[in-house]
Amino acid sequence: MGLNWSLRKNPVRLECRVEFSDYDETRDFLDRAAELAEKQGYYPDMSFGRTHVSITLSPQDDSGIISDELKGYADLMDELVSTEQTVDETK
User: Fold this and answer.
1) CB count in 10 Å sphere of residue 75
2) What is the pTM (predicted TM-score) of this model?
3) 3-class DSSP state of 17
4) Which of 14, 41, 46, 59 has CA 20 to 30 A from 8's CA?
5) How many CB atoms sit inside 10 A of residue 28's CB?
6) Sign of the Cα pseudo-torsion (4, 45, 43, 29, in order)
7) What is the pLDDT of residues 60-77, one digit of tens each?
8) Gap between the Cα atoms of 3 and 74, Å rounded
9) Cβ atoms within 10 Å, residue 8
10) Which pLDDT score, from 0 to 100, does residue 85 have?
11) Containing H/E element for 73?
């Protein structure tokens, strides 16, 4: 996982905060995250401000375990941020 994901224990979850330079970047990321959620059938908790998004990934069952599948989802979120940065570099 490339972002600064933090493992929280009560309740068990992964959290990170992503910063963007402006609202357009934030909104583009949120659109991509929504597409990913629809494609994967997993809907993370997200809150956002003008230039940041806070993401929480929680197990979908009562296991209390961060599964490899959930870590894989975090990796996909990382790729969304990398894609955004790649797009920004072309501006």
Assistant:
1) 13
2) 0.84
3) strand
4) 41
5) 16
6) negative
7) 888 889 999 999 999 999
8) 8
9) 13
10) 54
11) helix 68-89
